[in-house]
Amino acid sequence: MSDFNPEPVNRLPRREALKWLATAAAGLSLAQLDAASPTIPPSGTPPFAPHGKRIGADPVLNKTYHPGELWPLSFTVEQRAAAAALADLITPPEKGDLPPSALGVPDFIDEWISSYYDETIKDRPIILEGLTWIDQESQRRYQKVFAQLSLEQQSAIADDICGVKPVKKELRPQENFFKRFRHLAAGGYFTTPQGMRDLGYRGNRPSATFEGPTPEALRHLGL
Amino acid sequence: MPIISEQNLRDDYDVIVVGSGAGGGQSAFTLTMAGVKVLMLESGRNYDPLTETAMFQTPDQMPLRGISTVEKPFGFADATVNGGWQVPDEPYTQANNKPEERFWWWRARMLGGRTNHWGRISLRNGPYDFKPYSRDGLGFDWPIAYEDVTPYYDKVELLVGVYGSNEGLENTPDSPNNTLLPPPKARAGELYFKKHVTPLGIPVIPIHRAVLSTRQDHTTIPQRLFPQNPTAQKLTAESMKARAACFWATDCGRGCNIRANYQSTTVHLPPALASGNLDILPNAHAREVVLNEQGKATGVTYIDKTTGKERTVKARAVILAASSGETARILLNSKSAKHPDGIANSSGLVGKYIMDTVGAGLGGRVPAFEGLPLHNEDGAGGHVYVPWWLYQQQHAGKLDFARGYHIEFSTGRHAPNLGVAGPAGPGYGSKFKEELRRTYGSFIGFSGRGEMIPNKDSYCELDPEVKDKWGIPVLKFHWKWSSHEINQAAHMQKTFAAMIEAAGGIPNRVETGEKAIKPGGFIIHEVGGGIMGADKNKSVTNRWNQCWDVPNLLLNDGSAFCSNADKNPTLTIMALAWRACDHLIEEMRQGNL
Question: Quick one: pLDDT at residue B425?
């Protein structure tokens, strides 16, 4: 009870529920566990990390970590600016909200591509080359870097690679970049307290009783 | 917690308990409440859930948004440290590299062991589950019946605190009145599926889970548990008073710093330590059990992981509760000229008949869930489940697999994780966000958890070559499913698809049984390897978890299981450990050991 703060915590939801975590642990998403189709046990150690830094098997669990704290980051100033602009384009803020670039999303993407786990290592060249390309393409079309373009100009480039309309064959690598970047940017944003609320998550708050579904929710389901 | 180091070891312990999880924790609790002096050896480090648990942290406060990695396989905030399917410095090997013949061995090198991991689902085995051979001619009957274990299920439920309800269903036992805590309300999605699958004959009822939905009644329960023992009453009452009721937030898998859920460090170990009868030595990696000339256990030899030095501690009796695989490893490594195949192994069955739970799942999209008015859907795990419901059809030979499974649910708007954008189509911007809001939480996931029948092709032995960091031979696993498990997994797939369709949903692709079944060990319900039986030539332990060959050596983890019902094993491990310790105490009192 020492740590139980009966006031609603200022950070909203937590519960990361990973790829396939969930199983047993009460309430975790079994769907996610069972969606995985593993074939071999994981190897004992993560891939070689040139900087030698990892999370480790016994990290301090109940503290706040910041990107760059466990291993050095990689983005250049230019790459960081492009990542921030693209993240803000992908999940633009609602009225009164902060943009993802102000919520540490680019830092998270940098942390991700600077790590050497099976889950992260393939994204490093994809993201770095993609950010370089998007600035080059902006220069070619508008003579400015991506971060300095208008929303319309940014959108014109994004529209060519986001997959809503057929993507030209020569832009396949960029299409893949956009897909991976969106996965990280949206996932990064919707796992912040603001992003969780924006999405519709209302949990991570202690309460004396579990209230269950609201009458409106039951009506919605015909119950 | 008052954890000791080597220099504080005493030389007059009554019992050494190897392992601090469900079996070890329960053993230490039962013994110390009776005044028995216990030394617990834990291979991992000390761990305190009150100060180490990540309760409200959000993914943006964790490295890599808390994703699963090889170092933290259930995600960054998961309680397990120094654990997983791979543990540093402690390899294991496979007899065969075919994926379907590999066994995934999960370990947790920390105080509390695998109770730091489990889902707290607490289902009693029923009468059929103790006599499976008599029912269908497969596997083994236990040398005990449900009635032998019933009083201990009652006690364990009262001690740890289990929520649930009594439904009077076949082979799904009820608990006595005033034993279970009230179950939490079902979620919207759970109620929706209950409505739509009940017409299929599939019962949806409250699950039983070791979470305090209300505080325990510390004024009456201790007396019910220990009618003749005022000291135990007082210690148990104090511990119950210190536990809070669940506040319906944060994953149980992270651990619980208000002690509302069960892990051995929140329930068993605090009163055991408070009794003054328990010493816990962490970082003590048990290597072998030492026997005297008469074949009685006299102690345990372990490696101090902090110094690498070996030491032997002595006691009148030894309890192995190191996890089924590790217990077999210790027995097999207890070799001598007199016991070239390890101890307690005159039957040749140590390490044999390892079982896991059959696991397969299927998810789907449920359009009716889209646009559900927003509300808090956290709670404590799934609040409902489906117990096995086809006992009669199965018994009549209408199914192509012999044993049942239960179904666990995952519905609702879980806390978003990094994969949250997965369901959205291409695009970006406001429209993309709107689409994600619409689809978020509109999915159902069903997980089948079924009974595996023990078979002679699933076992472990010592690897002749490979040793761990401390020079101790490691386990080599052999694994095979039979058609019963494969066909059961296929039945799960078809059933889950039918359930999703009955609710107007769109199931994901249904796989074959071979494809759908999870690898052995993946569900982390490993039991067997020291099976219990009525015939000492056909089993390792007797009805009291005592090794036939070494009566003052008990196997109090899952290793004594000779069947593995679909019911998650932890509650039964605890009930049998309590029962075995009561018997051990009586035998020691009478001077029989």
Answer: 82
